[in-house]
Amino acid sequence: MWAVQRADLRGWAAGVAGLMLLAGAEQGSAREPAPVNRSLKILYAGRPGSDREADFVAFLQQQFDVVRTGNLETLREADLQGFDVTLLDWDGNVFAGPCPQFSESFSRPVITLGVHGSMICSRLQLKMAPW
User: Fold this and answer.
1) Domain count of the chain?
2) Separate counts of helices (H) and strands (E) for the chain
3) What is the model's pLDDT at position 30?
4) 45 DSSP β-pair partners
5) CATH of the domain at 88
6) How far apart are CA 89 and CA 105, in angstroms?
7) Does residue 26 surpass a pLDDT of 70?
8) What's the pTM value of the predicted model, to 2 decimals?
9) pLDDT higher than 70, residue 10
């Protein structure tokens, strides 16, 4: 079974933070990076109580003022109301993990993470951007 070590996750989070800084620098001047929009309201929906959830939430709280958590197993479309961005993640068995259902009219920003995130996109027949 493939598993992500906490150190690997921290390295990945540091890489994401670096990319955010680079993206901001490209939008602003060469000397001053564009400010991060800390006012975005973020929902992290994953497996409650997991180390992965704790690590991601700690990282997100450093970047944004409002970060809440939700349970991916019980997540409904209505739970995403009031949030600017939702992150869907799962660190259990990715092949048996939960897949939230959204209506065809659903149009809120969602970021799927990891292998399970790609499986969610596949099940919902969503287009994915290859990174």
Assistant:
1) 1
2) 3, 4
3) 60
4) 70, 88
5) 3.40.50
6) 22
7) no
8) 0.71
9) no
Alpha carbon 85 to its chain's center: 8
Q: Note the pLDDT tens digit of each residue in 46-77.
A: 999 999 999 999 999 999 999 999 999 999 99
Distances (CA, A) of 66 to 22, 37, 57: 23, 11, 10
Instruction: Give residue 3's pLDDT band: very low, low, confident or very high (50, 70, 90).
Output: very low
CB 43 within 8 A of CB 83: yes
Query: What does the block give as tokens for 28?
Result: 């602003």
Q: CB–CB of 85/111 below 8 Å?
A: yes
Residue 44 lies in a domain: yes
Nearby residues of 17 by Cβ (< 8 Å), 6 or more positions away? 59, 63
Q: Which two tokens stand for residue 57?
A: 């939430």
Tokens representing 56?
Answer: 């991601």
pLDDT at 125: 77
Residue 114 lies in a domain: yes
Residue 67, strand partner residues? 42
Separation CA 24–CA 17 (nearest Å): 11
**For residue range 106-128, what is the model confidence (pLDDT) as tens digits?**
888 999 888 888 888 888 877 76
Q: Is the dihedral of CA 113, 63, 107, 52 positive or negative?
A: positive
